[in-house]
């Protein structure tokens, strides 16, 4: 398969680069860690090397070195489609090169072979209480697929360490192939009549999700899915879900165990669940005014929110210091496809007003919108109005990045992750200038 060939071709060079760093510069210091960083979520500590993507504070995410506008421009697309195929994106993430149309199609075709969801997984979803959160169902379903892990089977048979990445890639292709169908099954069972269209072989991976949930405005929603799944595919290596995946994968857990663990992190309100909060807030603003609010009315509303100690969802970012280019890409989509949508118009007006209001506080490092400030608005417009499902859509996309990181961690033989914890007493002794009374192993 094309991804195997391409990774096998570039792997010796990557292994040499890493070996050179580790052997020739093993004691080179990358950063220091302060007590405040330890107590504040290891914020900013450079603990990870992740070559799939990098978040530049001023340019936003770069996927294998390419900015979002570059990725949107350069990746191949199907005839008649505005946005690229996810198959091309997966090639870029995995193989570290822009694919040709044929290479992108090869990934898409490989996915088509493995799209079907085993009956036991469908039955498991159907046996759950209907009120189960869709992220719980999504994570459970990924776990239920684990029985077919090729890596787990070959590992038991004594797989050679340098080949660990190969069945990890096989598993990744098989798992990612199923994600649109899995999400559609969960969506239709939880919110519709439970029936589902079989995947359409003429459509790509992203378009098929729109087709399977039978979105009434299928063509435009297919395009939105292409854009959405591309934009959310990765956000470097140390956010909660990516770091969770790395840690679990480092124990040689297979891709199903790794991805389900990542999804459990993504399901947290401070991570992937934030997008539903943004739409809720937007609707609250919308419903607080009898007619479309003026800039002054919005400014007063925002100041009141801030004064009462509330955060404004969709604005600010831990790393970015500019408008998120993923916001901009979806903003442009909305400008073209839904210019008359009142919620979109509200997003525009808030964007005009809010950064200056946030700057007035003097403490917010990034007063500009992040991707969540518009995500939900687009889904809402196309009738996907079940807020708790939005994180599943995010997860479908993010597993593309997570599996690419996992394959490369195996390819570069990254070892099990095992940092060290200290006790409060140890820190107290150190700040008092006393030596550690208990030996700290390194
Ligand atoms: C994303 C976020 C968690 C980043 O947090 P952060 O890295 O601590 O951000 P900052 O360093 O700029 O925060 C400095 C202060 O500004 C506040 N702040 C940041 N963004 C804010 C916002 N959108 N509304 C109100 N206050 C905000 C922080 O709460 C913090 O206040 P404190 O010093 O009283 O604790 C934060 O901006 C936020 O809560 N945004 C809204 C939620 C959201 O959009 N989440 C999705 C993120 S992709």
Structural commentary:
- It is a single chain.
- The protein has 442 residues and is mainly α.
- The chain has a domain of 159 residues: Citrate Synthase, domain 1.
- It is 58% helix and 2% strand.
- The chain contains 20 helices and 3 strands.
- A 3-stranded antiparallel beta sheet has the order 1-2-3.
- Helix 7 crosses helix 9 and helix 12 packs across helix 19.
- It starts with a helix and ends in an 11-residue tail after the last helix.
- The mean pLDDT is 95.
- Bound molecules: coenzyme A.
- The site of coenzyme A (COA) has 16 residues, from loops.
- The site of coenzyme A has 16 residues, from loops.
User: What is the third-level CATH name, the topology of the domain at 111-269?
Assistant: Citrate Synthase, domain 1
Residue-averaged pLDDT, rounded? Answer: 95
Provide the succession of SSEs. Answer: HHEEEHHHHHHHHHHHHHHHHHH
Low-pLDDT windows of residues: none
> What is the terminal separation in angstroms?
41 Å
Shape category: globular
- Supply the CATH superfamily name of the domain at 111-269: Citrate Synthase, domain 1
Roughly what percent helix? 55-70%
Biggest sheet strand order reads 1-2-3
Strand content: under 5%
The CATH architecture of the domain at 111-269 would be: Orthogonal Bundle
Ligand types: coenzyme A
């Amino acid at each position: 398969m094309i991804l195997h060939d391409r990774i096998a071709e570039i792997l010796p060079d990557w292994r040499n680069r890493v070996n050179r760093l580790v052997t020739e510069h093993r004691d080179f210091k990358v950063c220091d860690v302060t007590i405040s960083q330890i107590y504040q979520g290891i914020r900013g500590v450079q603990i990870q090397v992740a070559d799939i993507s990098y978040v530049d504070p001023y340019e936003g995410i770069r996927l294998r070195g390419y900015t979002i506008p570059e990725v949107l421009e350069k990746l191949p697309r199907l005839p008649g489609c505005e946005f690229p195929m996810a198959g091309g994106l997966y090639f870029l993430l995995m193989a570290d090169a822009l694919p040709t149309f044929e290479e992108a199609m090869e990934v898409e075709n490989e996915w088509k072979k493995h799209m079907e969801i085993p009956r036991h997984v469908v039955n498991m979803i159907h046996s759950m209480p209907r009120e189960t959160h869709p992220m719980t169902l999504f994570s459970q379903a990924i776990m239920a697929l684990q029985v077919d892990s090729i890596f787990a089977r070959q590992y038991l048979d004594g797989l050679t360490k340098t080949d660990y990445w190969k069945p990890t890639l096989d598993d990744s292709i098989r798992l990612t192939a199923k994600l649109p169908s899995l999400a559609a099954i969960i969506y239709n069972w939880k919110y519709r009549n439970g029936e589902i269209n079989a995947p359409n072989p003429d459509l790509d991976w992203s378009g098929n999700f729109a087709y399977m949930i039978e979105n009434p405005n299928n063509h435009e929603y297919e395009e939105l899915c292409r854009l959405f799944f591309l934009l959310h595919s990765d956000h470097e290596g140390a956010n909660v879900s990516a770091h969770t995946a790395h840690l679990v994968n480092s124990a040689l857990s297979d891709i199903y165990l790794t991805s389900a663990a990542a999804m459990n992190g993504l399901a947290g309100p401070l991570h992937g669940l934030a997008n539903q909060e943004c739409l809720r807030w937007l609707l609250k603003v919308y419903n607080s005014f009898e007619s479309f609010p003026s800039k002054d009315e919005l400014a007063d509303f925002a100041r009141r929110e801030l004064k009462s100690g509330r955060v404004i969802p969709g604005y600010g970012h831990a790393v970015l210091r500019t408008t998120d280019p993923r916001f901009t890409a979806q903003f442009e989509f909305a400008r073209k496809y839904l210019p008359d949508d009142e919620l979109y118009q509200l997003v525009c007006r808030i964007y005009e007003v809010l950064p200056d209001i946030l700057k007035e506080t003097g403490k917010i490092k990034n007063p500009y919108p992040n991707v969540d400030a518009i995500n939900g608005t687009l889904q809402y417009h196309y009738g996907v109005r079940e807020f708790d499902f939005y994180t599943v859509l995010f997860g479908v996309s993010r597993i593309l990045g997570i599996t690419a990181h996992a394959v490369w961690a195996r390819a570069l033989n990254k070892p099990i992750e095992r940092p060290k914890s200290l006790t409060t007493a140890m820190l107290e002794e150190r700040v008092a200038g006393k030596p550690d009374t208990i030996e700290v192993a390194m």
